[in-house]
Design a protein that fits this description.
DNA-binding; globular; RmlC_Cupin_sf; Lambda_DNA-bd_dom_sf; alpha+beta
Length: 186
Amino acid sequence: MDDVNESKQIVLQIGGALKKYRKEKNMSLDDLAELTGVSKLTLGNIERGETNPTLAIIWKISKGISLPLLALFKSEDPVSLYRAGEGLRFSNDQKNWIIEPVFKSNDTEMCRAYLQPNSSYSPEGHHVNTTEIATVMTGSIEIQVNGEIYTLNQYDTISFRADSPHAYTNHTNSETVLHLSLKYGF
């Protein structure tokens, strides 16, 4: 499947999962907009597969409905293979932070994350009681959690409450690759 068709499939999958959730909860688009902080128009476009939502929008929806991010990308296959650089990828508006979903269970999800050289990424706070575990696979990175800075090099790992303020900074001239795990507390 080419990248355009794969992207369209992903957009339709997100929209279908969101619409299914909304219908199961007997919610209107207005209700969902109020819950997530995402406009009714944007939510309707997502449900119909007419827009490719940004990572920030997907996080707002996920947080607002208290579902893990990857719950919006369900796969029914008994075996899932995720090759680096292929398949589902999301980036922030600046395109300096890219994530690739790797695995999801009921309360845990894993992603590969790529932070471009000489850049920073500050995510919105995640779901309440979520733990984030980050391991540097290549490169080095500074991670700021609650105002304190931690420097991690290749294979170093840090664990912290992801609902607290945190940021990733790559001060090097090379891309940093991370393995991220999110363990949800709901």
